[in-house]
Amino acid sequence: MRFLIIALMICVLLSTQSPGRETTIVYSGSVVPLDQQASDVSGIWSVSLNDTVITAAINQTGREITGRCRSDAWSGVISGMVSGDQMSMAFAALQGDVLISIYMSGKLAGEVVNGEFIRMDSSGLSDSGSFIARRVSSDTSGYTSAKRVVINRTEYRVSGPVSGILGLNDI
User: Fold this and answer.
1) How far is CA 62 from CA 68, 84, 106, 151, in A?
2) Per-residue pLDDT tens over the stretch 60-100
3) Domain boundaries in the chain?
4) Are 134 and 55 in contact (CB under 8 A)?
5) Which CATH number fits domain 2-170: 1.10.10.10, 2.40.128.30, 2.40.70.10, 1.10.275.10?
6) Number of helices (H) and strands (E), helices first, in the chain?
7) What is the pLDDT of residues 3-50, one digit of tens each?
8) What distance in Å separates the CA atoms of residue 45 and residue 52, rounded to the nearest whole number?
9) How far apart are CA 77 and CA 11, in angstroms?
C-alpha cells in the first residue's frame, strides 16, 4: 500500500511540475519492487513489545496478511503486508471500552521479525519501541481467541478452554 502511495505522490509531483523546474524527492525508507515475491509468514507468531506478549495467527494471500491476535487482556484483528523481507502489520483490539491500535514494521529473517512499533489507545496513552516476533508454528488451526469469563460478577480473561470449569459462564 505504501508503495502505491509513493508512486501516486511521484505521479502528482511530475504532473504538476512546470517546465524548467527541477523536483527532488527524498525518501528514507526502503523501496521493494511490487513484483518481488513475498516471504511466507503464515502461522502462529509470538510477538514481544515492551511489557506485552501478543499471540498472532497470521494468514497470507500473496503479499496481504490478515489474522487474529490476543494478549492476556484482549483479542483483536490484524491487517498488513509483506514485501520481500519487509513486513508491516496493524493490530486493532478493544480492552474494555478502550480501543488499542498497534502498528509494527520490521525485517523478516527466517522465523524471526525484528522491528519498531507504535502503540496508541483511545484513552490517550501511547508508547513505541522495538519488537521481536518469532514464528512458533506454521499451522494456525490451534489458535483460539482470548475468552472473557465471569465468576461472581468479576470478569477474567483466559486463553484456554473454559468448558470444564464449574461455575464459569462464557460471555
Assistant:
1) 18, 11, 18, 44
2) 999 999 999 999 888 999 999 999 899 999 999 988 889 99
3) 2-170
4) no
5) 2.40.128.30
6) 1, 11
7) 545 554 554 444 444 455 554 555 555 554 554 567 889 999 999 998
8) 14
9) 33
